[in-house]
Design goal:
The complex is a heterodimer of chains A (110) and B (112). Chain A has 110 residues and is mainly β. Chain A has no helices and eleven strands. Classes of the chains: A mainly beta (110), B mainly beta (112).
Chain lengths: 110, 112
């Protein structure tokens, strides 16, 4: 079983600042990485996915992948109170099965 | 935007009873999944399904669990004889080939 590790937080960031969320994974052969946002009591919502080393930007979100160091990160620029949620890092394994980390709880303070 | 729909949103069942959770995946998706999340814990993979058969299943998915695609739109998870530890949120997801998975809103299963 591949492992995906995240700091469970809580991570507290002032409104308007950059929130940085990190994730490490155990299997050097992993190829596909996903960030999901989960509000309390709700389902995971896809935010970003990244397959290649480097950065991938989508609006206020940037995913960064470093396969040599086996980490993937998510940056949220201009953080808003509505960004307060748990962010789940997930890695593809086998026949498209997702292995999730335990999630980082992010709080944006107005 | 197309979405995965799950019913019911909340299911309360006596221990030992059978329960069926229902999902309608996104219409052009071919890969279907069930995950569960016990309160306060990680999202855990249960099973993946493609071309009318199970592609992969986890250790959690024992003989008490089964999945079925009874028609062209529904995808169901059956738990034959529920235990207290089956209490969790159950999420259905679907995807295209090599595409990200999209999750339904989940069914909260409470076993009494």
């Amino acid at each position: 079983q591949k492992e995906v590790e995240q700091n469970s937080g809580p991570l507290s960031v002032p409104e308007g600042a950059i929130a940085s969320l990190n994730c490490t994974y155990s299997d050097r052969g992993s190829q596909s990485f996903f960030w999901y946002r989960q509000y309390s009591g709700k389902s995971p919502e896809l935010i970003m996915f990244i397959y290649s080393n480097g950065d991938k930007e989508d609006g206020r979100f940037t995913a960064q992948l470093n396969k040599a160091s086996q980490y993937v990160s998510l940056l949220i620029r201009d953080s808003q109170p509505s960004d307060s949620a748990t962010y789940l890092c997930a890695v593809w394994e086998g026949a498209q099965k997702l292995v999730f980390g335990q999630g980082t709880r992010l709080t944006i303070n107005p | 935007e197309p979405e995965v729909t799950q019913t019911p949103s909340h299911q309360v069942t006596q221990m030992g009873q059978e329960v069926i959770l229902r999902c309608v995946p996104i219409s052009n998706h071919l890969y279907f999944y069930w995950y569960r999340q016990i309160l306060g814990q990680k999202v855990e993979f249960l099973v993946s399904f493609y071309n009318n058969e199970i592609s992969e299943k986890s250790e959690i998915f024992d003989d008490q669990f089964s999945v079925e695609r009874p028609d062209g739109s529904n995808f169901t998870l059956k738990i034959r004889s529920t235990k207290l530890e089956d209490s969790a949120m159950y999420f259905c997801a679907s995807s295209g080939r090599n595409q990200p998975q999209h999750f339904g809103d989940g069914t909260r299963l409470s076993i009494l």
